[in-house]
## 1
Amino acid sequence: MRDMIDEALFEPKTLYPFQKDTVEKIINELEENGSDFNLLFQLPTGGGKTVIFSEIAKLYIERWEKKVLILTHRIELSVQTSKQLSAIGVSNKIINSEVKTLNDQNDYNCFIAMVETLNNRLQDNENFIKDIGLVIVDEAHYNSFRKIFQYYKDANILGVTATPLSSNKALPLNDHYDKLQVGESIASLIENGYLADAETFTYDVNLHGLKIGSNGDFTVSSSELVYGNHFMQEKLLFAYEEVAVGSKTLIFNSGIETSIRVKETFDKRGYKIRHLDSTFSDKDRKEILAWFKKTPDAILSSVGILTTGFDEPTVETIILNRATRSLTLYHQMIGRGSRKLPKKDQFQLIDLGNNVRRFGLWQDYINWHDAFKFPDRFLESRVSEQEDMEFEVPYELPKFIREKINTEILDQFNMKRIYDECMENGEPGKKAVDYSLENHFEAIRTVACDFYDGLELQEAIQEHIEHRLKQYTKCISKSTRNYFKYLMDTYNRQLRQKLRAVLDDE
């Protein structure tokens, strides 16, 4: 696990001026408000949260002569924090699943614990760790930490996060924190040379197949259907080849099947790519990340594992091959590319999920005080669920199909326009489907050598036909699954009949 973290992070280092100021402000807040006070601190990914709260832990131990407990939700973050504390001279101990008792706790001033492990120990013995004066919560937007707070009612709690929005809308952070302190903005950190700037490239995609789950974000299953198809794979490859060829690239996907298909797609073009997800063993994960680190033009396709606790400054391109409604996840993913190096002051961001349209540019100003005080209003001011689903972009035929079919004929047809014309002329709206069928027929007939060639072309444009018919069902406000299946089956059957009638005779 240690190899996942940049070793340079654990060498003693001088805090940047803004980090020093932050430490002083937080210590002053704790001194002025006493023990019955909980503070939430916001700082963008890459701003050095671990360095800052490690220094706070050191000063707190010295001034208050009490111990500090640091809570994390991933083992990588526990190891990273422990190394940083040791580097600045704070004696500390990680409480993992192997630690059943703490007979040696007097030997340490600071403890780092995985939240679930500590909760189990405290349920057995609520005095498992004694004399805690300050509890520091890393990635404080996660709600799993709340179960620990009941055991430390007399301690100060310092939550640290890049996005002070609760992972559960029903449990806002202002329920547990008395005040929010906002750190440097992303734009300020870029301007002062602490973060690399993002050059953003957006590619609009249709998200009609996506469904929203109980957690408020798009479901993995619906994302797999949208992003696993051939057209989206080709769009991803096109975006990479247009913007990022030869750069070290990290691709974020929603589902494992999609990520595997991404690897297969890039493999076929001869690119150096690996796939990584949470099912991999520690050994395999370590090997893949080592390969990614040392390979200049490596591509890593990942699923839900590298958004936190992963630091690879050499990443040059971030690709969001997914859509998310989580502002926190949006910032976490992009932040993986923002680490600064002597020869890296910019990285590339490719958005294939309309995320920039939903949240704005990564560098944009966000009123975090408003988000903390009025989270419901803040979230409602963003793109609505309905706007997400209704947003539509023109359908683009994949390149390999454009080379085979008469696209000039297809481009002449617009379902909504034809439907509106039918209604204005007193024709049945269903007539628009007949006109669409005739358009597809002409586009195939003009290039097909025979009936079997025509059938192959018909099969190749199924997504185009599906897109047309979905537009029609929107026009008539009738889009049940059974009706759409009937429409597709009837359309394809009639198209085959027309092709057979003409091409069999040629």
Note: The first helix runs from residue 17 to 33.
## 2
Amino acid sequence: MTLKRRMLFAAFLAFGVIATSVVFLVQEYFGAVASQNVVRESLEPAADSARSLVSAQANASRALTDYTLLGTPSALERMITAVERMEVLAQQIQPPIAGSTDLTQLLTAVQASQRAWVSTGVEPITAAMESGRGKRARALTQASTTTAAYQAMTEDAQLLVTQIDRQRDSAADLAQGFTRLLGVVLLLAGVSATVLLAGLFLALRRWVLQPLASLQTDLKLATHEAGHEHVIAGVGPPEIALVAVDAESMRRSLVHEIDTAQAARQGLLQEAPVVSALAAAYAASPTIEIAGLSVFGTSQSAEGVMSGDWWDTVIRPNGTLGLVIADVSGHGAAPGVTAIQLRPLLHSGLRAGSSPDEILKVASTILFESDFFVTALVAVIDQHAGTITWANAGHEPALIVQGDKTASFCDPTGPLLSSLGGHWETRTQQFRPGTLLIAFTDGLVESRTAAGATFTTHDLSSFVRGCDAPVRVNAEEISQRVIARARERSVDWQRDDITLLAVARPL
């Protein structure tokens, strides 16, 4: 992942945290508001019933007074109905306020004071009226105990009404206050997110992108200018500046190596023109461009400019891609001459459309009187059929990595090429989009670390499968990475010739 994408990922992560916090707060807000609305809606009927209770108490008192003055049955009936309604209303208030201890206690006090008024005033007065003692009943109506009981009842009822209204209004105020708080928090979150993103973008541009662009420009100039003399300047933050310093150090070393190589090449051209011409002809492997495939090959000699390793590619008459990688035993000029003899024969066999096993059979005839033996892998890739067909004459098994990172090898299908002859078998495997083939000589996998460990085919497979898909389908890039990895861990890199050929089928 690029540094730019990492910074953007961090920005979006921060924005996600802010957004998540806001969403959580909104959820809490709606939960709180819903809870307060439930409280308010449940207290509304309780408040109405409490007011009706106060009215019923007043009606009961007036009906009792009318009954003592008039003695009519209708007044008695109104008084009894009012008292019964008082009890019913008290019971109606109880369920909505069950969750409030304070209101429940007040309701209990109201019910107790109502019973006290009934027992102290209502019952004695009605008993006196029923016995015909109207004067006694009127006296009881004006008695201090009756008046005090009625006053206590009405005060308790009014206090209950006041407390219910207060809690209902408190719930409404809390919901309104929470709404204002949510608005402020959302505004602050929006401003914070905007400032964060703007600051992150400016910091990314100033401290990372601009220094990287400057470093990229210097690297391009140092690469493409004649003589590679452009100096790479260290700019930007310390991390990027250190990279520029290392790049400048590498440029100076490369310029020195180029100067040395040019001097050596001039000496070779002046003193050994035949060897130089042979080396040029031997190294000439034309770059193949074929639709649907990415091809790259490279070869490095352990001694001088000639080696016994080589690779070759050719477009066959039917449009398929033929490829060869081979290794003559030993290294130096003599194996190089044998390679020069074999190479055109294998090339011609591929161009003529022969099968891989037939090509190996013909090639073995050249070695009937030779002291050398040769390992070779001949393969044909048909991108239209999605297959690879190969024959392997004792060569290192080529690695095939599919798009899903499953790996397999082009194992030997017969003996190596030598004066003893032999028989070879041709095998076929799928070569679908996203597949990579890496063929190599033993110089790659036999390089050793300081501890003596080789770069095994398993190490090669693990390294290639660990690369991203865009790298695996770029033949040149994956080849350079494999060689760089093997060379980095090796302490005897030039102990043998090294050749590598990669063919990838992009998605």
Note: The chain has 13 helices and ten strands.
